[in-house]
Amino acid sequence: MKILKALSDETRLRIIKLLEDGEHCVCDIVAALDMVQPKVSFHLGVLKEAGLIKDRKDGKWSYYSLNDADILRRFLLFTVIEKVGEEDTKDDSKRLKSFLEYKGQKQSG
Questions:
Q1: What is the pTM of this model?
Q2: Least CB-packed of 12, 21, 46, 92 within 10 Å?
Q3: pLDDT single digits (tens) 48-91
Q4: pLDDT exceeds cutoff 80 at 106
Q5: How far apart are CA 104 and CA 69, in angstroms?
Q6: Torsion angles phi and psi, residue 65, rounded to 5
Q7: Largest CA distance in the chain
């Protein structure tokens, strides 16, 4: 039941779509969704509790990725990613790309 509840929210579907390409820190997801950190963290918590994503700590940063450890979750995640169209998350992807470029420039310079 937790999985279905987690998949019933557009923001959480957008987060799953962002994580399709790999691991991201909370700040990346906040920038991509153009939302405040507490709201994003709430949605990440729901997804994590449902077992759809996993996290790891690196110092003060938390990084999230898809949890495809078992076949049921892998199938659900694949289905969600296929159903959430590129058009629906085009702006998220643009914001994420811009933020990652900015972050890369800031770290190298």
A1: 0.80
A2: 21
A3: 999 999 999 999 889 999 997 777 777 777 777 777 777 768 88
A4: no
A5: 30
A6: -150, 165
A7: 47
**What is the C-alpha separation between 80 and 100, in angstroms, rounded?**
24
Each domain of the chain, given as residue ranges in start order, spans 2-104
| H/E stretch holding 62 | strand 61-66
Q: What is the pLDDT of residue 28?
A: 95
Contact 7, 73 (CB under 8 A): no
Residue with the two structure tokens 């659900």: 76
Looking at 1.10.10.10, 1.10.260.40, 1.10.3720.10, 3.20.20.70, the CATH number of the domain 2-104 comes to 1.10.10.10
Q: How far apart are CA 83 and CA 105, in angstroms?
A: 34
Q: The tokens of 80 are what?
A: 């969600």
Rounded to whole angstroms, the Cα distance separating 24 from 69 reads 18
Confidence (pLDDT) at 109: 63
- Of 51, 64, 63, the closest CA to residue 1 belongs to 51
